[in-house]
Amino acid sequence: MARSTTTEAVVLRSFRLGEADRVLHVYTLERGRVGAVAKGVRKTKSRFGGRLEPFSHVELVLHQGRGDLDTVTGASLLRSHDRVRSEPYRLQVGTIGLEAMLRLFTEQEANERAFTALTRFLDALEAVPASAGARAALEPVVLSFQLKLLWVSGYMPHLGSCVECGEEDAPLVAFLPSAGGVLCAACDGGGIPLSPDGLHGIRTLLHTPIADAPAAELGERARRDTLAVVTGSYEHHGGFRLKTVSA
After folding, report:
1. C-alpha to C-alpha distances, 46 to 64, 85, 128, 151, 183, nearest whole angstrom
2. What per-residue confidence (pLDDT) applies to 46?
3. Whole-number Å distance between alpha carbons of 122 and 146
């Protein structure tokens, strides 16, 4: 039976369909990941205007028919996040975050914590200064966001002790994605190298609000180690690498 629902959503991706329509991939508070068609959105006089661009935080009315895609019948803009779209560095960082959502959350299954993390990430990203020449994948805000997504997906790295022997006092020197945690030197047989700064940085970002990630003042090695742990977790648990990071 066809029905309509109203829900908050963030537009993750959109692409053209026909002469005037767009297909949207949105992450909603009520239903998780949803695919929808916005009819006539590319027309000059479209009633949706610019409200359905990627990064937009909106309230949508979605009509569920018999097909795989819903139809957008109403859209109200809550936060446009134009500051993210209009500055190259913030745009690069934001695109990494949206791809992480697309790859980790593929089902119509509500996850309030994931939706909250997404909206807080976009809000925090608006305050990130432009940083010409910096590598977007090492931005603390997006590293913190991705660690939070792994957490709410059930893939949070175990960081308190060696996952093989349980040792807590020996230096922890590597991360093993297949075991989901860190290793001491005696148990390391080829894990991802992890420096003391990296381990401290990951712990800090996991337990710090996304908006406060820049204040952690992580060094280059800590950021690179964090990215390696995130990437290794994606490869093992999801079988993917983010194109926006690899490019």
Report:
1. 21, 21, 32, 39, 56
2. 60
3. 13
158 and 182 Cβ atoms separated by less than 8 Å: yes
Percentage of the chain lying above the pLDDT 70 cut = 95
Q: Write out the DSSP string of 113-126.
A: HHHHHHHHHHHHHT
State the pTM of this model.
0.93
Amino acid (one-letter) located at 188: D
State how far Cα 247 lies from the chain centre: 17
Q: How many CB atoms sit inside 10 A of residue 5's CB? A: 14
CA pseudo-torsion sign 114, 230, 14, 212 = positive
Q: Strand, helix or coil at 107?
A: coil
Name the region of 81 (left: φ>0; alpha: ψ -120 to 50; beta: rest). Answer: left
Helix (H) / strand (E) element for 147: namely helix 140-152
Render pLDDT for 172-216 as a digit per residue (tens, 0 to 9). 999 999 999 999 999 998 999 999 999 999 999 999 999 999 999
